[in-house]
Write the structure tokens for this entry.
Amino acid sequence: MKVITNRKYGPPEVLRLEEWETPIPKENEIRVKIINTTVNSGDWRVRKPDPNIARLYFGLFKPRSVVLGLSFAGLVDTVGTKVSTFQVGDRVVGSTGMKMGTYAEYTCIPETGIVTKLPKEISFAEGAGISFGGFTALDFIQKCNVQTNQSILIYGASSSVGSAAIQLAKHFGAHVTTVCSKGNIPLMKSLGADEPLDYDQYFSTNHTKEYDIVFECVGKTEIQNNLKHLKKGGNLVLVGASFRQMWQALWISIFKRIKIHFGPIKESIENLNFLLTLATLGKIKVNIDKVYPLEEMAEAHRYVEAGHKKGNVVIQVEKTK
Ligand SMILES: NC(=O)c1ccc[n+]([C@@H]2O[C@H](COP(=O)([O-])OP(=O)(O)OC[C@H]3O[C@@H](n4cnc5c(N)ncnc54)[C@H](OP(=O)(O)O)[C@@H]3O)[C@@H](O)[C@H]2O)c1
């Protein structure tokens, strides 16, 4: 099978096309013929790595896992002898999490892993795009317990996480203000934002409004600036917090008794099914910015690393008939 490897850390050029043996599923696993995967912010961060301290987890001198990619959508191609919930030919969607390995034509995953059937109303590309931003936004929205009529400010709202957060916050009944570049305002409106602001409007001294929840998606603002816009007793979310911000947030939350949420999220099959149900009902849509063939992975990484994608970048591994 075709695989894109990263045998060393570095720029997008370290990504190489190789031919590997097709994996054989264990008795409790299914093998998925991948139609689509995605390139996410996490992928280029692991490739570099960024921050450098990530080497302690991913491999000190070179990557331990040489195939990146977590999200996938495709067709069940083979099932292990003990598999009972999936059949050959099922349309499926899922995430391999920290195991990664979806920049490939096939992946094997336990039937009890983060994998479920992909409803026929959702395309493979949308299926692959739903999990990264969707899981992250939903996990933090659940931690804040977003309620009807609460106000939420989403900063970096055109990101993968942000575009999902807008729609999930609307689903839970919140009034949504978004912040992104001017050019992305029409996208914000199409995703349901009530008050889309551009950066100038947000940072203007005239903008003094306070919100129940400040949801910083991209780790690009100072915590003090977010706190200026947070109501007393509100929730601050720092999705893309750096280590420095995490320490800062810890101290602030202890000494000022402010609810600050940050750190890695948990992926669950319940949340994946919830996201798929909302997508099937047309309550959330997966914004697909660009689609690249597997062979153009380096180009896709360059684009995503530049930091201005709108929603999701999808990789076409296999053409659908
Ligand atoms: N905690 C967790 O478990 C977890 C999970 C997933 C992701 N993350 C983190 O969450 C962050 C977002 O991930 P993502 O994949 O959603 O990002 P992404 O899609 O790659 O983000 C791209 C977006 O960032 C916006 N952006 C760039 N510079 C900006 C700035 N200075 N101010 C505001 N927006 C800016 C761009 O909007 P414009 O073009 O309009 O500027 C663009 O739409 C990353 O830091 C990632 O590491 C954390």
About this structure: The first strand starts at residue 2 and ends at 6.
